[in-house]
Specification:
By secondary structure, this protein is α/β, with parallel strands linked by helices. The protein has a single domain, classed as Alpha-Beta Barrel (TIM Barrel). It contains 13 helices and ten strands. The protein has an eight-stranded parallel sheet with strand order 9-8-7-6-5-4-3-10, with helices on one face. It has a two-stranded antiparallel sheet with strand order 1-2. Helix 6 links the parallel strand 8 and strand 9. Helix 2 crosses helix 3 and helix 9 packs antiparallel against helix 12.
Length: 338
């Protein structure tokens, strides 16, 4: 496992992040005993970055994660999230000052720790003023309960607005973005990744295996295996039915066979190798899945494989990006004298 800086910060994280969404999930996850074995093996393999959220199994994931790392807390860069509904009341969700301050206290209790290394807002909250959210998060940092801040599922304009406002207010800013990103879902390459590279914001993608589509288990004309996310999650069922996505999955399998790796390793390595990406987040239901994914930590795809994957998964060049491409070509053709 290699280490990378999280954006412009001095925090060093492993180039793969263990996602704890499977922990305690009775439908497609794993029990506590297996979860703890997964955590131990991940740490033994040199990983140090674990991501969870308060809403995962309604807090159970945080509880299991906390118990699993209790004796190794100093080894772990621990990340969790706030914003999702944690009750039925009108103030039990969102990014109000009340919910953020309630949320960090509840997460710390469940995790059994005095602080989290990375506290992320799970989604943009249009019902709460952004300055209220940023000031509440800044108070969590100043109180020593949070070391770094991040956001998840923001649009590029929302992230840039938050970055500029934090600069204006003098508060802690988002040093990390957690977006969806995979060969199947490459939209963040248009705005998010250039923005994060420009502003020094780390990127820790979720679903780099596209909900299991890129693991080699889902093939054209075949039914997704029972117990997998592709079989139980409506979003992933729809994704697995699209011709473009099936073509991408088949290309991943083709490349994996050619280089003697697994499909999961190829898809993870592709994601981890994209400019601006810090650490893709992968989940595991079994130790076998974990070992498979760990095989991507040191895998670097050659140029031929990269070109093949880029071609099969390419996004359509729509406005204004087609216009930008023409301008770049025009500028590149200009001969300037020194």
């Amino acid at each position: 496992m290699r280490l990378r800086r999280l954006g412009r910060t001095g925090l060093k994280v492993s180039n793969l992040c263990l996602g704890a969404m499977t922990f305690g999930n009775k439908e497609w996850g794993c029990d506590e005993a297996t979860s703890r074995k997964i955590v131990d093996r991940f740490l033994d393999a040199g990983g140090n970055f674990i991501d969870t959220a308060d809403v995962y199994s309604n807090g159970v994931s945080e509880e299991i994660t906390g118990r699993a790392i209790r004796q190794k807390r100093h080894q772990v860069v621990l990340a969790t999230k706030v914003a999702g509904p944690m009750g039925s009341g009108p103030n039990d969700l969102g990014l109000s000052r009340r919910h953020i301050l309630d949320g960090i206290e509840a997460s710390l209790r469940r995790l059994g720790t005095d602080f989290v290394d990375l506290y992320q807002v799970h989604a943009y909250d249009p019902t709460t003023p952004l300055d209220e959210t940023l000031r509440a998060l800044d108070d969590c940092v100043r109180a020593g309960k949070v070391r770094y801040l991040g956001c998840s599922n923001y649009s590029a304009w929302q992230l840039m607005k938050a970055t500029a406002l934090a600069r204006e207010l003098g508060t802690a800013r988002y040093d990390c973005l957690q977006p969806q990103y995979s060969l199947v879902c490459r939209e963040i390459e248009r705005e998010h990744l250039p923005l994060c590279r420009e502003e020094g914001i780390g990127v820790i993608p979720w679903s780099p295996l596209a909900g299991g589509l890129l693991t080699g288990k889902v093939r054209r004309g075949a039914v997704a295996p029972a117990g997998t996310r592709a079989a139980v999650d409506p979003m992933n069922r729809e994704r697995c039915a699209e011709e473009r996505n099936l073509a991408i999955a088949e290309t991943v399998v083709e490349i994996s066979k050619a280089i003697g790796k697994t499909a999961s390793q190829v898809a993870l390595a592709w994601c981890a190798g994209q400019p601006g990406v810090t650490s893709p987040i992968f989940g595991a239901r079994t130790l076998e899945q974990l070992e498979d994914n760990l095989g991507a930590a040191d895998l670097v795809l050659d140029e031929a494989a990269g070109r093949k994957l880029a071609a099969v998964s390419a996004l359509p060049l729509v406005y204004p990006y087609d216009f930008h491409a023409r301008v770049r070509a025009m500028m590149g053709a200009m001969k300037l004298e020194a």
